[in-house]
Design brief:
single chain; 345 residues; alpha/beta; Rossmann fold; Arc Repressor Mutant, subunit A; 3 domains; five-stranded parallel β-sheet; two-stranded antiparallel ribbon; 7 strands; 10% strand
């Protein structure tokens, strides 16, 4: 049997702990009659499992009734959506029969006797009207959304699509700060009202049972392995991957050493590089305290209570730290404190 765990981001591993409650939340919302929402924004730190969560939902909706399109943030999203829709083999003949001529836009052949459509938004709405008439629904997924020109153009058109009651649904994943910046755009205030899902740590009992099932170890050893991950989705994969390759079924000093190396190389260095200097100062001060006292951390970097509250809130929302009792903070990422202590400034 091959290693059931993977270190590749975005690839659905053989061993995967589903987030059933949050998955069902989206499914029930999109399949409701009427649908309470046509949009979900899914946030989480790198390695939290956003892409795998998105893939699981895409797989669920790939049915006769639903048409699923995965759009790349690196492309012109609006044009990419129009192209995928127009060239879909399930719909192409219907569009031709309706004389939808997109030759001017470079998306189709000339149709005799039909004036070419010159506006991309108009072309999409004409096609969606036919999709609606056929009783089908469209799900669009965008992974790692950012506040780009293409994303803003697409979101603006999606707002129009919603107002015109077309059966189109959107799933967006992204880092908290990227989604925050996107919804702060003056023309995209509707995104504030969109329901949001933050991918919290995996259930400790579920991680424990998963390890026990795969490694056939004792509940005590499985719990130690689960505790090392702190519920962090990527750490769950790393611990399992290493234990499988090292042929061990519990936490050892060698496992911890390898775990630190892999987490540094594959995810923590990237997370750290994306943090602002002030956030790094806050985390470095936090790593230097044994108590995790907010007062002690704040005073060590000479920051006012009001200023510190802003950065603390952002780091909590990013999924890096959490409040643990009155006036105390802890790291949510496994052994991230150790990682910080070993950074060279």
């Amino acid at each position: 049997m091959n290693n059931p765990f993977t270190l590749s981001f975005g690839l659905e591993p053989a061993s995967y702990i589903a987030r059933e409650q949050q998955t069902n939340q989206v499914i029930h919302s999109f399949t409701g009659d009427p649908s309470p929402s046509h949009l979900y924004m899914i946030s989480g730190i790198r390695g939290a499992g956003k892409t795998v969560f998105l893939s699981e939902l895409e797989d669920y909706f790939r049915t006769e009734e639903w048409i699923v399109y995965d759009l790349s943030i690196e492309t012109d999203l609006l044009r990419s959506f129009a192209a995928k829709l127009y060239n879909d083999e399930r719909l192409y003949k219907l569009f031709i029969g309706a004389k939808i001529n997109l030759s001017f836009l470079g998306l189709g052949v000339e149709i005799q006797g039909a004036s070419p459509i010159s506006d991309l938004g108009t072309a999409i709405e004409r096609m969606l009207a036919i999709v609606k008439k056929q009783g089908k629904k469209v799900l669009i997924s965008i992974d790692e959304a950012i506040n780009s020109v293409y994303m803003r153009q697409f979101a603006s058109e999606f707002q129009i699509i919603l107002r015109n009651h077309y059966p189109v649904y959107l799933l967006m994943t992204g880092l908290y700060e990227n989604l925050y910046n996107l919804q702060n755009e003056k023309t995209l205030t509707f995104l504030y009202r969109a329901p949001k899902i933050n991918l919290d740590p995996l259930n400790a009992a579920a991680v424990t049972l998963s390890y026990q099932k795969i490694f056939h170890n004792s509940i005590e050893d499985a719990r130690k392995m689960a505790a090392l991950t702190k519920g962090y989705s990527y750490a769950y994969q790393v611990v399992g991957y290493l234990c499988w390759n090292m042929n061990i079924h519990t936490v050892t000093d060698e496992l911890i050493s390898q775990f630190d190396r892999y987490m540094d190389e594959y995810v923590y260095a990237k997370i750290w590089s994306e943090l602002s200097p002030v956030k790094r100062d806050v985390l470095n001060a936090m790593a230097g305290t044994s108590s995790g006292s907010v007062k002690e951390i704040r005073q060590s970097i000479g920051m006012s209570t009001q200023e510190f509250s802003v950065y603390r809130s952002r780091l909590v929302q990013q999924g890096i730290i959490q409040a643990n009792g009155y006036g105390r903070l802890t790291f949510t990422l496994p052994r991230f404190k150790f990682f910080i202590q070993n950074q060279v400034y």
